[in-house]
Amino acid sequence: LKSNPSNNEEKEAQTQLTKSDELQRLHSQALSAYQQEDYEAAISLLDEILAVCVWDAELRELRAECYIKEGEPSKAISDLKAAAKLKSDNTEAFYKISRIYYQLGDHELSLSEVRECLKLDQDHKQCFSLYKQVKKLNKQIESAEEFIREGRYEDAISKYDSVMKTEPEVPVYATRAKERICHCLSKNQQATEAIKVCSEVLQLEPTNVNALKDRAEAYLLEDLYEE
């Protein structure tokens, strides 16, 4: 403006200055809402800012944190993936994405993302610790599924027992393991045990189709046709 004043440019510059002042005000409000744990309000304010500042990685990371607190992990993943692209060497974003996938029970995607973190920094303590855990769990699940394909149901049950010991903190893995144990027991014609384990799964997930089918097979073995 100072170097080349003209009415047209002055008007444009004043508009941009007004907009930037407004965005700074929204930013302060968003941070304040986040600190007060009003995550819904923070998301709404960050939506407005990010509509203009599309390439701001830190704002996306902040909105991802809000989404996590609000129980919307898939939206958090979307923001964190953008942040990982926008900021080079963003190990923190890859770590968070991997953690979310892990908590959701998607161990394969979790492993893939934590490897991206270690590509950037092989000495990253959090990523390496998570990598060891996910890799161990992933290997056990793959091994158990291989046993099922081979009809080695006792071995598969034993392996899924190990899965539950490896990850006792995240409930989704115990539920999935029990669902597969229920399947193995039913296939192995251990009807009484199958009915018990399948029922445990169905208490947690009443509409679990696999557990319903496997329990039905077990009931057939026991001639319990009504059930």
UniProtKB/TrEMBL annotation:
The keyword Repeat applies. Residues 1-21 are annotated as: Disordered. It holds the Pfam family TPR_8. Residues 8-21 have a biased composition (Basic and acidic residues). One of its GO terms (molecular function) is protein-folding chaperone binding. The keyword Cell division does not apply. This is DNJC3 protein. The lineage of its organism: Eukaryota, Metazoa, Chordata, Craniata, Vertebrata. GO terms for biological process: protein folding in endoplasmic reticulum. InterPro entries: DnaJ_C3_Co-chaperones, TPR-like_helical_dom_sf, TPR_rpt. Gene3D superfamilies: Tetratricopeptide repeat domain.
